[in-house]
Write a structure and sequence with these properties.
The chain has 214 residues and is mainly α. The protein has 5 helices and 2 strands. It has one domain. Helices cover 76% and strands 2% of the residues. Strand 1 and strand 2 form a beta hairpin.
Length: 214
Amino acid sequence: MKIDWTNRLIELVVVFIGITAAFGLDNYREAQTQRELERKYIHSLQGDLRADKQQLESLVAESRSSLKQVAKLANLSNGAHISNDSLAVYASGMFRFQRFRPSRITYDALSGSGDLTVLTSFELKHQLAELYSLYEQTNEQDAVGRDHVNKYIVPYFYENFDLRNLNLLKRDALTKPMFSNLIQGNLVTANQSFRMYQECLEECRDLLLHLEDR
């Protein structure tokens, strides 16, 4: 029996086309699923970053106010007179525990599950890693500031002030070198946190613009 190679070839071509089309359709569906997942993650990241931006704007404003108040205390080491009410206002700047609490839910979900590969932009992945690394550094700086307050400033005020109204228990409490050192230390740590809040805010805004342009 003579084999009709032409028909056999046509059948093979049809089968090949069918298999190729099936693979192509599967790949298309997978690509669509990945794109939809990427859109969901980006939308969620935008929500997290908007919350971060709002919090950082408040922290920048509060830190700027606190720094101004603490700076006024520096004059007291020179013997300048101040009322108890003013002392309470200025000293409150030293006791403000600034703490940045970034929204990490989406980023942690992406990195923890290995889904960072869903993000097709290398630049976006790099920006995210840089931003959240900066967030961690800022949290560490916040901890340094709180540690300075708890270890040095709080004990000094307990020893030298009536904390109910900030009346002086020791008349030279405001002119001691220790008081001046505490103020300078607080200004250094608070100013470092302030600058880091500003840097975080700038990077956060840039990343939000990047996401909104996608």
